[in-house]
Amino acid sequence: MEKRVRFKSAWLPWVLVAPQMAIVLVFFFWPAGQALYQSVLQEDAFGTSREFVGLENFRRLWEDPSYVDSFYTTALFSVLVAAIGICVALLLAVMANRVVRGAAIYKTLLIWPYAVAPVVAGVLWLMIFASPWGVVSYTLQALGYDWNHLLSGRDAMALIVMASVWKQISYNFLFFLAGLQSVPSSVIEAATIDGASPWKRFWSIVFPLLSPITFFLLVMNVIYAFFDTFAIVDAATQGGPGKDTSILVYKVYYDGFKALDMGGSAAQSVVLMAVVILLTVFQFRFVEKKVQY
Amino acid sequence: MRFKPLALAGAAMLSLAMAVPAQAQTEIQWWHSMGGALGEWVNDLANQFNASQKDYKVVPTFKGSYDESMTAAIAAFRAGNAPDILQVFEVGTATMMASKGAIKPVAEVMKMAGVNFDPKAYVPAVAGYYTAPNGQMLSMPFNSSTVVFYYNKDAFKSAGLDASKPPKTWPEVVLAAGKLKAAGHKCPFTTSWISWTQLENFSAWHNVLFSSLNNGFGGMGTRLEFNSPLHVRHFENLANMAKQGLFVYKGRNNAADATLVSGECAMGTASAGLLGNLKRNAKFDFGVSTMPYYPDVAGAPQNSVIGGASLWVMAGKKNEVYKGVGEFLSYLAKPEVAAASHQRTGYLPVTTAAYELTEKSGFYKENPGADVAVTQMIRKTTDKSRGIRIGNFVQVRTIIDEETENIWSGKKTPKEGLDAAVKRGNEQLERFQKANKG
Fold first, then answer.
1. What is the ipTM of this complex?
2. pLDDT single digits (tens) B215-231
3. Tally of CB atoms within 10 A around A200
4. Do B186 and A132 touch (CB under 8 A)?
5. Do A260 and B251 touch (CB under 8 A)?
6. The model's pTM
7. Scanning every residue of chain B, which has its alpha carbon at the shortest distance from the alpha carbon of A66?
8. Which of A37, A218, B311, B366 is 20 to 30 Å from A224 by CA-CA measure?
């Protein structure tokens, strides 16, 4: 059922596609090329002396056991962020879709967190969970759980996952809500007349219709967890305790912007880029098969 | 008649056009990291200088924390837009010193400005830190601090401790912490800047090396040595305190400062620069004392080493800018200006004259504790206690944060944690040495 548009002239499609290509070139290929170039250099902080070092920066990465560890941390973090983010957003979207009165208010409130900068999200959740006076940590303490993200790696991971999910839920919610509203009501009504329970209606009609959106969100959320979360980590845990929340992108940020090691940071961002390209290819090859358009 | 207003307007325009170049001030951009009460201090300094003359206008801009402002300045330098004056924390000193093309030594700036400049007027322990091996002063000492011990006198009284007798040694700290805890205090002791207070200053205070080659003053080949038996013993002590709830870890950098000001924690080691904040915001009586030490260690207590920041002048500016910068920096070092800064913030006096002026005015008698930082610093220094100047110091401190967190959480023993920090830190030192040789 592919729709193809046929152009009569040879150059018109290229002209139409040119603005998009220009944007991709300037905002993706150029910086990516810069990263590749910098990853083979070693510079001092101010860039007054630079030296070609070949693959030295990459070699150093693999010799650092803590870098290899942070792959595991990143995998755990991004699976949690993507899975929880998508599930909670779907639940909220289904509920918001059923609301009749005050729907606009609910939707606005749910979309709000997206306008918050990541670093603010990190600080916000840090406040809520600050031990011992944060709202939630205080309550947890009263319930007998000694919350301490400064020394417990599990608590720290939970904190950054919550902040990252909260920040991304609005985005997921928006897409799910749009998808739900485009589900034809006649199909649902027909199923209801056939006696299908709400649960059954959701899983055999609505969710399959949402599967392309879910797939899109899966890709977007993985990219989000990989690239966009360093400010949250920086504000909430700074990669600690120990290195328990030092995800790959935070290390890129730390080495580049705090430690001023441009070469090492560029090498890591090249590795990170490769990982995300591989993941996306994998998702399109294998997960996409489960998607019905 | 009709033309008169027009002619007047024309004359006014003309005189305005002529007046503009005559009044043009050279703007001097100053990036700093002083927030809150300290930010007001920086603004007051700039305003007072601007009011004192007509040719230059210093414009201070708050650029976030120390590492943020340094990153911002480096990005700006790469884009050809660097500020004229940059406040850099002591940890960045080796990086700035190694970036010869990016900075202009303060001694040269002073010469260009034609202002009177005598490096000997500065407090030696402070100025020595910012002086190159050839004796040239590279940056202007500004807000140098050192570690002091703060304690909450009200909490001491309520725990039945003598508020006029702060603990002088670590065993006494443990005893006091025990009593505070027994009296219901949830956080008897905490500390800011783990590496700076518990390793760097701890080493100088006990006259042991933090890293070889006199803590980096002797060359780039320096290697970390803070896993000696004395260091391990100290961290075993701290780890035990943590286990018993006597020492409560409050996070990296200066996160613990807020808990001392709010009264949540009763005792703590922190920067002398916290004094101004405490004076202003603490709702209880507090005291300042010297850093604790182990009485059985020979030579302890020695002297403490500096922290805080200095002002660096960036390269590639116009001559008139450098003249203005020179004027401004020498203004900051004037005895009455420097003495007022010292008294207001709790940071160390920059010049000996400022210290003497403060002493003469009776300030230390009226403000007991304000002299602790000064007397800690101006004791005789040894080769082991002059300061710490190592490369990639930001990373080394983060490594120390990470490994000591593993100690507090019980994942590693103090020996394992310190050994790992030394090993990982040394890799950073080797890299710095390699990158800055050529």
1. 0.85
2. 988 888 999 999 999 99
3. 12
4. yes
5. no
6. 0.86
7. B424
8. A37
